[in-house]
Amino acid sequence: MATEKEDMQRQLLALRDRIDAIDEQIGKLISERARCAQSVAEVKKASGETLVTYYRPEREAQVLRRAMERNEGPLGDEEVARLFREIMSACLALEEPIKVAFLGPEGTFTQQAALKHFGSSAVTRPMSVIDEVFREVEAGAVNYGVVPVENSTEGVVTHTLDNFIGSNLKICGEVELRIHHHLMVSDVTHTDSITRIYSHSQSLAQCRKWLDAHYPKAERIAVNSNAEAAKRIKGEWNAAAIAGEMAAELYGLQVLSEKIEDEPDNSTRFLIIGTEQVPPSGEDKTSIVVAVKNSPGALHGLLEPFQRHKVDLTRVETRPSRTGAWTYVFFIDFKGHVDQLAVQSALADVAAQVSDLKVLGSYPKGVL
Ligand SMILES: O=C(O)C(=O)C[C@]1(C(=O)O)C=C[C@@H](O)C=C1
């Protein structure tokens, strides 16, 4: 009689044999898919176009959405999409390794967003300020850039919006990231003598209540990024940093308190910027910027065409214009693509009433 243990061993072996056989099939299929991607690259190259675009955001969004729709479980839809995200990322790297600039240094949430969007085969390059991300893409030094644009608790990243006003770059994607902030220290920190806490100003603001309750006397020092804060405290015995998990790992820090953000569903939206307009994916968003003279009813006049043409607004943001007193700049996001008739009609009606209108881009609604 087989003992219970032997029985379990036999079952385990049989299951592992099955897993091995399945893995063999998956491996073969992945290779076949990769060869297909290589052929796609050949076809694109043969098209005769001077600038061949290997990365196709609209197609990637469709592939990921389909993978989620097809999913029968037990893995969750997002999990399945993440696996396909990585397969596609590796396939694209065979066609052309994609270079992506992000608001650095290494370990920022923006880098995390870049990897979430492009997968880990993308080559990511840290830039020290948002302007530099724009400049690198404009100069063609990288294919795309990733910049933060709005946070669910702290609102817009004004610097990113301001950059769009003077830039010809296009928005070609969006990605949302759940943001968890941790309080971290280095191996030389005296944890009971923390008098300075470094982080990005937005992160300090997102943890304001927690800091008031736990470190009311510590000086809060705003630096360029969370990752810079993490880097900075190495060697400071009385300092701590607020940053994400990636920064803690990268700079070898110890997490003292986890998830200290005041709002539990704190998330940040990032934009992917590039040089080309993306074709429709079937579920798209469009961002525009318009300049309006401050007159009674100006805002109503600006928004009314969207309602009339049944175009759903998702966000309206105002910034004072740099060019003239009493002129306002509105950043407007809505559902739909500039190739759609309803969107074109709404935009034509808006354009008739404003001093300036620029389409910043139509792009697939974030999938992951
Ligand atoms: O369909 C394409 O155009 C491809 O290049 C293939 C593929 C893929 O692996 O599915 C790879 C990269 C593109 O960004 C989109 C899709």
Automatic annotation (TrEMBL):
Keywords: Amino-acid biosynthesis, Aromatic amino acid biosynthesis, Cytoplasm, Isomerase, Lyase, Multifunctional enzyme, Phenylalanine biosynthesis
Presence of keyword Acyltransferase: no
Compartment(s): Cytoplasm
Main location: cytoplasm
Gene3D superfamilies attached to this UniProt entry: 3.30.70.260, Chorismate mutase, Periplasmic binding protein-like II
InterPro entries tied to this protein: ACT-like_dom_sf, ACT_dom, Chor_mutase/pphenate_deHydtase, Chorismate_II_sf, CM_dom_sf, CM_II_prokaryot, G/b/e-P-prot_chorismate_mutase, Preph_deHydtase
The protein's annotated pathway: Metabolic intermediate biosynthesis; prephenate biosynthesis; prephenate from chorismate: step 1/1; Amino-acid biosynthesis; L-phenylalanine biosynthesis; phenylpyruvate from prephenate: step 1/1
Domain ACT positions: 287-364
Signal peptide: none
Domain Prephenate dehydratase intervals: 99-275
Domain of life: Bacteria
GO BP terms: chorismate metabolic process; L-phenylalanine biosynthetic process
EC number(s) stated in the UniProt entry for this protein: 4.2.1.51, 5.4.99.5
Pfam families referenced in this protein's UniProt entry, alphabetically: ACT (PF01842), CM_2 (PF01817), PDT (PF00800)
Boundaries of every Chorismate mutase domain copy: 6-99
Cellular component annotations (GO), alphabetically ordered: cytoplasm
Keyword Oxidoreductase applies: no
Site positions (Essential for prephenate dehydratase activity): T268
Catalytic activity line of the entry: prephenate + H(+) = 3-phenylpyruvate + CO2 + H2O; chorismate = prephenate
Single annotated GO MF: chorismate mutase activity
Coiled-coil features, chain-numbered ranges: none
Physiological role: Catalyzes the Claisen rearrangement of chorismate to prephenate and the decarboxylation/dehydration of prephenate to phenylpyruvate.
Protein name: Bifunctional chorismate mutase/prephenate dehydratase
